[in-house]
Design goal:
Layout (H helix, E strand, L loop, with lengths): L2 H21 L7 E8 L2 E8 L23 E9 L3 E3 L2 E3 L2 E8 L6 E5 L14 E6 L1 E20 L2 E19 L1
Antiparallel strand pairs: 1-2, 2-3, 3-6, 4-5, 4-10, 6-7, 7-8, 9-10
Amino acid sequence: MRLRPIASLACTALFAVSALAQGAKPAASPAESASAHLKSGSITVKYGAPSMRGRKIMGELVPYGKVWRTGANEATSLVTTTALKIGGTSVPAGSYTLFTLPSEGQWLLIVNKQTGEWGLDYHEDHDLARIPMKSAKLAAPQEKMSISFENTSGNSTELHVKWENADESVAITAQ
């Protein structure tokens, strides 16, 4: 009968797929996203989330005084369906790229009008704004970088960038 060779081939294929799946390594910096839903619209940030993996992050892997892509892999994107005030700066509804300028003191959030770039393809002449961020220290080191929206209520929220011991944030209000 022909069923035996077909069954044997199917089992072999299933075994090969299973072995590949078990041996596949997760992405070193997986794609992540964060969203906030405000009364007048929504905000979404997409980014690559790197991990510390025993490395010193702030001031070394992420150097002070140099523009950072704020994540890994593709540049971090921000899409808003409503006009915003980010730290007091007006940002029209639309798509943007987020960068940061880390320092030992105060960080700056950079909202850049160029979109779709890979990594750190940064052009300062496309900056919409450079916005001061509020700095805080995390109680314990955070292994994986995260971007989150916290304290969301009505038409306001806070954008937080956390990694290692840093918690950098900025207030956002829908206009």
